[in-house]
Fold this protein.
Amino acid sequence: MSKTTLVIMAAGMGSRYGGLKQIDPVDEQGNKIIDFSIYDAIRAGFKKVVFIIKKENEHDFKTLIGDRVKDRIEVEYVFQELTDIPKGSCVPEGRVKPWGTAHAVLSCRGIIDGPFAVINADDFYGREAFKLICDFLSGLNPGSEGEYAMVGYKLENTLTENGYVSRGICSTDDNGYLKDIVERTHIEKRNGGAAFTEDGEHYTDISPESIVSMNLWGFSKGFIDEINLSFERFFKETVPGNPLKAEHYLPGVVDELLKAGRAKVKVLRSSDRWFGVTYKEDKPFVEESIRKLKEKGEYPVNLW
């Protein structure tokens, strides 16, 4: 019997933050943001967690994260490898940058045997989000393909006081299904609201009520095959023009399928406040937020 699986993308280093922020504690008990995500996933009903990591970080993840939860949920590890590319292809000379979030999830082929959710390791999504996505995945009919979901947040609930963020701005139809996502790579609080810029000089206001993707997705098992096909096209058509920096993004694969009429994505709206440590200056706010959630009884003092 297939298990509802949580896939956690943890192979990236925090370039703007500095260091491996995924294992940086956010409370006095030594818990990381990822611990709260796993805790929320378990109580929502997930049965397995898969960590996508770099091979060189395996010991740290097993010692500081995986070994602490393996008695509560099934744990597996996969490695995002630069050399994991289409058969007959070669890694471009000088390439060191990973191939992107879609490629990270593709690393899980052979491990995932049923519906699965995908999250970032360093984002705090909130209890409601995991319940929404787990209920959706549990409700999929066996053999359902092309039926996906994402948890959307209000933009104003995902901004930081300490710099800019990158967000996928979502538009939906009257039935709450995703029409498209427009990536804005520089959004910041501005003039009491929010605005984005493409050139760093000219800003365009954007509604704080806008729904954004925080990379919390739910997919049927067959999505792995769709990524594989898309990655092969990406490697053939995109990489030659930008061999050192081209990346294959998860939302891009979803967008391709939407435009081809081969998928539909239900947008599940969360009222929770997202937070994460994009910048070092964000950490005190995250620690205070965690403390308040514990005081309210949302989480026990000791998770594990």
In short: The radius of gyration is 19 Å. Helices lie at 33-44, 58-69, 101-106, 127-138, 223-237, 250-259, 283-295. The longest strand covers residues 178-190. The mean pLDDT is 92.
